């Protein structure tokens, strides 16, 4: 399994790039969003990768974070979602948008991706809703792909490091607290996503209070 590619960006096409790693070129398929974030040709680059194995073909798909890679793997587990559709969803929404759409049950957001119809978008929500908390808990806690040393000769361009994201553990801690209180993962994730969207800087205590209000019986 090839889990990461680090080398020099040789060229880019509409949906893939070629990365040279010490003389060996790897074709890596990426979303529009990842493509737009890559450096210029000839510069150093690093991507987390997922290898798709078929009887007559091997394809590598590249991502800038482990969260994005995990969403790709989960999206492809949904019947009717292949690699192309998964990249389309990630390219349209980004990893945070996918997490929020699934947690809130917003299939309309998923359906905005090219090649994804309403029925398939609804199936994505239904199949992955209970899996959202685990991926959401990863958000903001993984190092960016550019944070590691790139395998390149000394004369190669230095690695461009993405700004480090400051981890905010409030969402993960709130999800854990709600689970301990007996709330289901789907309901908990929806409430946390809604509360965090209303107050992105809320600490754990404030977020727990806000989510409990949202989960309280109405009427």
Order of SSEs: EEEHEEHHHHHHHH
Query: Tell me about the biggest sheet?
Result: 5 strands, mixed, barrel
Strand content: 15-25%
What is the level 1 CATH name of the largest domain?
Answer: Mainly Alpha
Helix-and-strand structural type: alpha+beta
Strand order, main sheet: write it out: 1-2-3-5-4
DSSP strand tally: 5
CATH superfamily of the largest domain: 5' to 3' exonuclease, C-terminal subdomain
Low-confidence stretches: 140-167
Percentage of residues in helical conformation = 40-55%
Q: What overall geometry do the principal axes of the alpha carbons give?
A: elongated
Q: Average pLDDT across residues? A: 82
The appropriate CATH architecture of the largest domain is: Orthogonal Bundle
Total tally of structural domains: 3
**For the terminal residues, how far apart are their CA atoms?**
53 Å
**CATH fold-level name of the largest domain:** DNA polymerase, domain 1
Our count of helices gives 9
- Structural Rg: 19 Å
Care to describe what's here?
It holds the Pfam family HHH_5. The chain is an alpha+beta fold and 219 residues long. It folds into three domains: 4-64, OB fold (Dihydrolipoamide Acetyltransferase, E2P), CATH 2.40.50; 66-136, DNA polymerase, domain 1 (Orthogonal Bundle), CATH 1.10.150.20; 170-215, Helicase, Ruva Protein, domain 3, CATH 1.10.8. Helices cover 44% and strands 18% of the residues. The chain contains nine helices and five strands; from the N terminus they run E-E-E-H-E-E-H-H-H-H-H-H-H-H. A five-stranded mixed beta barrel has the order 1-2-3-5-4. Helix 7 (170-180) runs antiparallel to helix 8 and helix 8 packs across helix 9. The termini are far apart. Residues 140-167 have low confidence and may be disordered.
């Amino acid at each position: 399994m090839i889990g990461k590619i680090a080398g020099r960006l040789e060229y880019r096409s509409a949906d893939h790039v070629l990365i040279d790693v010490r003389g060996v070129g790897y074709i890596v398929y990426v979303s529009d969003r990842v493509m737009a974030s890559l450096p210029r040709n000839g510069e150093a680059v690093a991507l987390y990768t997922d290898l798709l194995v078929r009887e007559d073909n091997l394809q590598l798909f590249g991502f800038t974070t482990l969260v994005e890679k995990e969403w790709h793997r989960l999206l492809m587990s949904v019947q009717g979602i292949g690699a192309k559709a998964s990249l389309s969803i990630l390219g349209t929404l980004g990893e945070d948008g996918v997490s929020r759409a699934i947690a809130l049950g917003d299939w309309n957001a998923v359906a905005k991706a090219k090649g994804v119809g309403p029925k398939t978008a609804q199936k994505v929500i239904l199949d992955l809703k209970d899996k959202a908390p685990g991926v959401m808990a990863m958000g903001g806690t993984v190092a960016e792909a550019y944070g590691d040393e790139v395998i390149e000769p000394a004369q190669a361009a230095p690695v461009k490091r993405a700004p480090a994201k400051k981890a905010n553990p409030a969402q993960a801690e709130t999800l854990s607290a709600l689970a301990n209180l007996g709330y289901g993962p789907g309901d908990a994730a929806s409430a946390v996503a809604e509360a965090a969207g209303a107050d992105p800087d809320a600490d754990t205590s404030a977020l727990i209070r806000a989510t409990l209000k949202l989960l309280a019986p109405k009427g």
